[in-house]
Amino acid sequence: MTALAACDLAGTRAAAAFVASEQQAMRNLSISKMSANEISRNDATAATAFVSRRSPSQRRPIIAGRPPFLSRLLLMILCLVIPQAATAQITIGSEFTLSPDGSELAFGYRTPKTRGSALYNWKTGLLRATPFMANSYSTDGKKIAGHNEQGLLVADASDPTRVDLVPNSNGCSLPVFQPGNKTLLCIDMMVPKAIRHPTMVLIDIQTGQRQIVLGNLVSTFDIAQPSFVSPTEFLFGTRDAPNNELRAAGKELGAQDLQLMTYRFRFGSTPQIAFPDVVRRLLQTPFASFSTFVSSEGGRRTAFVGRSNDTSCAEPPQIGPFGPMFRYDVYAIENGVATQITRICKLLGTAVISQRGNVAAFSVAASSPAKPSYGVRGAPHQEPWLVDLVTKVVTPLQLPARIAQDPRFN
Question: Which of 136, 102, 99, 138 has the alpha carbon at shortest distance from 388?
Answer without folding.
Answer: 102
